[in-house]
Amino acid sequence: MSTIAAIATPDAPGGISVIRISGEDALKIAGRVFKSLSGKTPEDMEGYTCAYGHVVENGENIDDAVLTVFRSPKSYTGEDIAEISCHGGRYITKKILRIILKNGADLAQPGEFTKRAFLYGKLSLTQAEAVMDVISSGSETELRCAGALREGAVFRRVSSLRDRLVSILGDLAAWADFPEEDIPEVRPEALLKSLKELLSDFKKTADTYEYGRIIREGIGTVIVGKPNVGKSTLMNLLSGFQRSIVTDIAGTTRDVIEESVRVGELTLRLSDTAGIRETGDVIESMGVDIAYKRLEEADLVLVVFDSTRPLEKEDIELIERVKNKKSIAIINKIDQKRESDESLDLNKSESENLLYENKSVSGVKLNKNDMLYIYDNFIHVVELSARDGSGLEQLTCTLEKMFIDKNTEFNNGIIANERQRDCLQRSMDLVKMASETLESCEMLDAVTVLLDSACDCLMELTGEKASEKVIDDVFSRFCVGK
Ligand code: GDP
Known about the structure:
It is a single chain. This protein has 482 residues and is of the alpha/beta class. It is built from 17 helices and 13 strands. It is flat, with a radius of gyration of 30 Å. It has a seven-stranded mixed β-sheet with strand order 3-4-5-6-2-1-7, covered by helices on one side. A six-stranded mixed β-sheet has the order 9-10-8-11-12-13, sandwiched between helices. It is 48% helix and 17% strand. The chain has three domains: 4-108, 2-Layer Sandwich (Gyrase A, domain 2); 128-208 and 413-475, Up-down Bundle (Four Helix Bundle (Hemerythrin (Met), subunit A)); 220-403, P-loop containing nucleotide triphosphate hydrolases (Rossmann fold), CATH 3.40.50.300. The structure holds guanosine-5'-diphosphate. Guanosine-5'-diphosphate is lined by residues 225, 227-233, 246-248, 253, 275, 332-333, 335-336, 385-387.
């Protein structure tokens, strides 16, 4: 394999930058471009040691630098590695990389260092995938999830499923190959029981994917509500800056605007959709169609109501539409309720609340029955002001309560991406087919073939039997230098 090099730090000015060289000739190439003050060459240096000196080209000092040496096999890739830490300017870093390439290294492909670590047997494929997850983690929960993957949690969980499959296959093979020997006959009922138990654990493993996806990719969220209830203002509040256009003219948010925002420990992938209402306007009604489609696909729907206006037909229709979806009712504009100097309290008597109704600023507002209707139809209701941000904390708590499962043990393994999910699903389908075959005709040969293939799918997941294409595909998603 050739010796490769790449900048391992971000392409931006910073305190230092690191250029990594890995491969058989790493130390030789490093020796051509780096001269230590002590006179020691990289090839003389022990692993895990560093030297101060200069990067040089044609006898000229290019930059002060520190060279760190890692010796095979005790390095990230398993190969010899030399890392040059230089000043963190974009130009100087690229210049040093160019000098290294001129002296015999090839530019590393995205993820090539980690790919080498995988090929060297330092990491399983799932652990390699975790490297990128650790890098892109944006919250404690995400980092814990990625950290467990990095520690091999998924590998262990999937390997245990595979071991059980292998054990069943072992029984089947022994019985098929040596029927005349004193091997206990494979009893279909016992085999079926083992397969059913295995399937239940497959399902539990597969179910972790959804939670992992939410933690990693964020919650696909749509904000819906009739025009002017404050959807765009809420979106702006959540994203912390003016993003969608806020106006007083009903129906001005025509397109779906998307954005990822962090709320507490979670990420919301937000779509602010066109105001859902009946409309004669063709463009706007297109927006409304998209809004309904988004609503169907969303993980979460924030249904916004205007506390200064009564519930209308559109609100009721919307409530019906989100009945089977995970949703939060947002009762917006509570600052106006406060301005009215009295708030509707569901614990107060009707006559007390009448006071509130009579004092409303706009004259029309959510009355007690409207409020009760909302509370009756939603498990989660948050009253807030998208304009001044009050109530945002309650929204954050509600979201964390809904989506963060404090009991989930990341160390038990959470399926981390679509590739892993797909391998697991294919394996599970084959085990299911094996179990059905056994139930219907007891053809043990067919069962063996199916379970064998199921085993292969799990080994594709862990990378123990993954094709070159699968491996290339995994690492192509990495950044250069990792
Ligand atoms: P959308 O059509 O649902 O996107 O509504 P907008 O976000 O465009 O808001 C409509 C109007 O309501 C604008 O004038 C906003 O400033 C106002 N508004 C939105 N949220 C609040 C709020 O919490 N309190 C008050 N008082 N006004 C709000």
